[in-house]
Amino acid sequence: MIGNSRLHWGKFQADTLVETWDTQHLNQSPLEMGWSWLHQISPVPLFIASVVPEQMQLWQNYPQAEIITLELLPLGGLYPTFGIDRGLAVLGAGNQLGFPILVIDAGTALTLTGVNQNRQLIGGAILPGLGLQFSSLSNRTATLPQVAFPESLPQRWGVNTSEAIASGIIHSMIAGLREFITAWCQEFPHSKISITGGDRIPLMTYLNSQYPKIAALIVDTPEAIFWGMSAMVRDRNLPSLNRVSL
Ligand SMILES: Nc1ncnc2c1ncn2[C@@H]1O[C@H](COP(=O)(O)OP(=O)(O)OP(=O)(O)O)[C@@H](O)[C@H]1O
Ligand SMILES: CC(C)(CO)[C@@H](O)C(=O)NCCC(=O)O
Ligand SMILES: [K+]
Fold this sequence. Notes:
Radius of gyration: 19 Å
Helix content: 25-40%
Strand order of the largest sheet: 7-6-5-8-9
Number of helices: 8
Bound molecules: adenosine-5'-triphosphate, pantothenoic acid, potassium ion
Shape: globular
């Protein structure tokens, strides 16, 4: 999975996900980097989904790379610019936990994505992720410093700049999530809710402290996107999968 901050890898043996890891974005194509050995030694199928077109371009000539596109997802009601990472995560988490489902992806951008029992997209929301909120404040103001994520929920009323920044971002983030989750549960009372993405652990720590009942509804699904890939690959008709062509 090519995300906005980095690449997320999953290794499958048959249908089983055996290992996951993350690497930086590439600045050359894998062939230029001498990665043809990877294919020669082990010509395993490589499935790629991307929300970063330039990064996808680099894989254009990689043998056996197959692109996962929106049309291949067994979900209804998707709009043309819908993010493939959101689709895979909601498919994977739904397959594992059941539909309806609401997925929170705490990545560079934080997304909420809700799908009903008929696997139709109800809709969602996109906002700057935790890391991006912190970095944009420090990058776009003269004096605000870069603040690291606090280990525990910051006090609401900060008494220095770092505390005030952490409070503002984190308390409004979790209050907002609570609102979205509550609204979703009113419409889909028996829905599963899951969380994935690089910032899910600090986010769950904060939610647990402030809103334990809400936090208790949320299942940790760090591998949701890979479950989605495997569900899609398992169900796919081979000929319908697009070979890489950009
Ligand atoms: N080693 C790491 N490198 C980069 N980000 C990390 C790392 N560990 C945790 N993170 C956190 O992960 C967040 C990014 O999440 P993730 O990696 O899921 O995003 P992404 O690559 O943009 O994926 P997506 O585009 O699918 O959201 C950052 O805000 C950062 O705080
Ligand atoms: C929102 C992100 C950046 C989250 O990774 C990605 O899913 C994306 O680029 N989506 C396209 C816009 C949309 O999903 O409506
Ligand atoms: K973008």
